[in-house]
């Protein structure tokens, strides 16, 4: 696949930017040396890696991310996790939600704990690397998408000097209650884009009405085309087409659509 082009001046949703951010999210699954060499090929000459472990209320887990910078742009990318592990996190119903940024609403405890493990290092890296008024961006896939959105929320409401200029997430689960989702949508309108691929199962958990998605969705249909919205009936029909695309394993479509490589392939086709 061709190398992405990331543009620090982009405002609103942009197909090239979406592809570039998806490639950055895909890169987060590689080892540090591969991240550094690839980022350098993309024109980012400074890299900071973030890795921290945490325990309660889950078995020992870790959060991984990287921040890359050049003279015009800083991009922090959070790594996702396996759907099975994410399911275990989301099944914990005994732990109360975490208070949201700026005391606004509530956040799923597991996501807040995962972000807390690396957020001081992320914030410090952005502060250090932002030496030329570079624009600030967040991205991530799966759990990484949830953390990207929440990191942008914490900066927006508690450290606006470093507020995000753009947020692209892929296969992001629901992260917070309605109060925080509404406040986030008001504050970051036109800067956040939540990309969902057809039957991606992770984008449909944890359940409503306790947890909600933030705007603004971009829906990839079963043919890989991007839609700003998908009405109920056409959406159901399109999901049905996705489920029947593999007659030998229809139940696997929700996992297959969640893979970051599926997002990258679809978004590459949508570039002008």
UniProtKB/TrEMBL annotation:
It is an enzyme of class 3 (hydrolase). Its EC number is 3.1.1.3. Residues 76-208 form the Fungal lipase-type domain. This is Lipase (Class 3). One of its GO terms (molecular function) is triacylglycerol lipase activity. One of its GO terms (biological process) is lipid metabolic process. It holds the Pfam family Lipase_3. InterPro entries: AB_hydrolase_fold, Fungal_lipase-type, Sec_MonoDiacylglyc_Lipase. It comes from Actinoalloteichus hymeniacidonis. Keywords: Hydrolase. The keyword Membrane does not apply.
């Amino acid at each position: 696949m061709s190398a992405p082009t990331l543009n620090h001046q982009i405002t609103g949703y942009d197909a090239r930017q979406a592809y570039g951010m998806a490639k950055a999210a895909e890169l987060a699954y590689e080892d540090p040396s591969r991240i550094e060499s690839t980022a350098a090929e993309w024109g980012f000459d400074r890299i900071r890696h973030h890795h921290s472990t945490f325990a309660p209320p889950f078995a020992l887990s870790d959060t991984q991310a990287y921040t890359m910078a050049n003279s015009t742009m800083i991009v922090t990318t959070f790594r996702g996790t396996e759907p099975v592990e994410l399911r275990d996190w989301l099944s914990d119903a005994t732990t109360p939600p975490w208070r949201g940024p700026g005391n606004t609403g509530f956040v799923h405890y597991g996501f807040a704990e995962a972000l807390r493990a690396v957020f001081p290092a992320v914030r410090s890296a952005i502060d250090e690397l932002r030496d030329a008024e570079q624009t600030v961006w967040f991205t991530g896939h799966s759990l990484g998408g949830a953390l990207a959105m929440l990191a942008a929320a914490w900066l927006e409401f508690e450290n606006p000097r470093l507020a995000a200029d753009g947020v692209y997430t892929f296969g992001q689960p629901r992260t917070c209650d309605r109060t925080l989702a509404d406040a986030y949508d008001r504050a970051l309108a036109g800067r956040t884009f939540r990309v969902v691929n057809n039957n991606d199962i992770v984008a449909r958990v944890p359940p409503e009405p306790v947890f909600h998605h933030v705007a603004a969705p971009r829906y990839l249909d079963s043919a890989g085309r991007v839609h700003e919205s998908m009405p109920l009936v056409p959406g159901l029909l399109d999901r049905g087409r996705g489920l029947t695309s593999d007659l030998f394993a229809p139940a696997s479509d929700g996992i297959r659509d969640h893979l970051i490589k599926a997002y990258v392939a679809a978004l590459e086709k949508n570039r002008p």
